Amino acid sequence: STHRPLRLPPTPWPKTTATMLASWARTAGRLARRQQPAAAASPVMAVRHTSSVLGAQQPRALPKLVEELAPTTIAPIELAKSMHPAFYIDQDYVQVERERIFGNHWFAAAHTSELSDPGDVKVVEVGDISIILTCDKSRKINAFYNVCRHRGARVCATSSKGCKQLVCPYHWWAYRLDGSLKSTPPAATPKERKDTLGLQRVPGVETFAGMVFLNQSPNPPPLTDTLGDLPKKLLRYDLDNLEFHAAKDYEIRGDWKLIAENFVDFYHINAVHPELAKFSRVDDHQPYQGNGQYVGFVTTPLTDSGGPGDSYNFNAFERLHGVEAAAALFFQIFPNVSVTIYPHSVYTLMTFPTQEPGKTRERLSLLMAPGAKLQADPMDLYKEKCGKLMDFVVNINDEDVEAIENLQVGLHNARARGLCGEFLPKYDWPVHRFQNMVLSGLHGEPLRQDIMPKLSSAFEQKVLSM
């Protein structure tokens, strides 16, 4: 005869035990509330929501270098100097910065096109915090901390498609795509207990311009409070219905802030991007800036130069005004997404700081305007055109990565000598604005508009006059 393992029936969670635990939790909660001292008055944004199931915690104190070195940047651009190199390389600072900026502010996490079908799952890593994004059966986008409620193991290691449930690999606790606990094999946990053991939600989840934004603070303000007048600027761009084409992931040896600063720095185009400079010249850039936590400018007019991005290769967004149809828009939405909008396509750079100072994960995505394919083009030709456009964008980004990594190396040398960069107001106002958003954001505050320069509104006036 063959040896058969002993099979035990499912072990139910004793009802008496569950009742005792629930009663103990209520009593402990009442005692904790009685003994808790009155909280000191502080800004709402000073509270950091962590991945711990114990809830929110106070952020670590800012290192002294912030108080000592920030004032040279928090000044009108004519008097200011660039952020001190210590803000890009010091271990103690960059960790606290990551907690305060990405823990208390809205940040971009993904494109909605990556979470458009039930079963789509995306894992996002920000420093030591791991987050799961899901599209559930009702097509709702959810965000949870990537922590099993049993022993704290990571539930998902990679993004996936067609997922039916989220299963922790340690003990097979299974969660539905809406985060609720489904099963705890082999134990048969009662429903009232399971209802308290779902995955912990990220407090803020909103979408804008075809992107998913998250906020980890316990009671986040609406995303629109951060965006200011940016939604109005993008009103005629159908960004919620973009067609995803391709993406490329990077591991960059540079601080995440340098990537954002490089994006808004159009002064380097001639030196770093010879092909881009053929149709996007330095002096063709104009401010497109309003109130809000973003940096904005345009290149106009765009010049066809025989390249893959030329206007005759694709249909443009249908509702653009005349000047918009011949302009490229550039927006750095604070803190971590760079958005380039051509008349026919969009490409984005989403950056995520790692646990190691001076190391950043970046994802470049190319998305096409709805109906970008010319009616006369067969699908194979359209895909070929999109592929060439992607190659062009990747080449530009590869050039930027080389420049950013060289800058990171140089900042170590500058740090040793206490050297700060200088601003040229005509070209460096976008970098000055972004750096001040970072320094204000460390305290949970918006940008100080009173020290920002008065910029030309010529392009905006043309848009409004159409």
Give your account of this protein's structure.
The protein is built from 12 helices and 18 strands. The chain is α+β, with helices and mostly antiparallel strands and 466 residues long. The protein has a 7-stranded antiparallel beta sheet. The protein has a 3-stranded antiparallel beta sheet with strand order 3-11-10. β8 and β9 form a beta hairpin.
Question: What keyword list fits this structure?
Answer:
alpha+beta, single chain, 7-stranded antiparallel sheet, disordered N terminus, 466 residues, globular
Percent helix, as a range, is 25-40%
> Runs with pLDDT <50, length 5+?
1-55
- The topology string of helices and strands comes to HEEHHHEEEEEEEHEEHHEHHEEEEEEHHH
Most strands sheet: 7 strands, antiparallel
Mean pLDDT: 89
Strand order of the largest sheet: 12-18-17-16-15-14-13
What is the tally of helical segments?
Answer: 12
Beginning-to-end CA distance, first to last residue: 88 Å
Radius of gyration: 25 Å
Q: How large is the share of residues in beta strands?
A: 15-25%
Q: How many distinct beta strands?
A: 18
